[in-house]
Amino acid sequence: MQATFSREDEIRKELSRLFESMMQILYKVEGSQFRVEILEKTQVQEFIDTHAKALDSSFQQVEMSDIMRQRLQQSNYIFSGMKTFHELNEAFPSLIDENGNRKPFEQFLNDVQKIDRTYNRNYLRAEYNFCQASANMASKWEGFMQDSDRYNLQYRTQRDKKVRPEHAALDRVTLPATDSFWKEFYPPNGWNCRCTVVQVRKSKYPETPHDEAMALGEEATGKDTKRIFRFNPGIEQKSFPDYNPYTIKRCKDCDIANAKGSVGGGNASSKLVFIPDNELCAACQILHKCVADRTKSATAIERTHYLHEMEPLLHIRHEKATNDGTIKVGFSTYGNKHLFSDTFSRSSVLLKEDLKDLGILLENSTYIEDSALTHTRADNIEHFYYYKAELHGRNVRLNVAKEVKHRRDGHIVIKYYLYSINDINE
Question: Do residues 91 and 41 make contact, with C-beta atoms less than 8 angstroms apart?
Answer without folding.
Answer: no
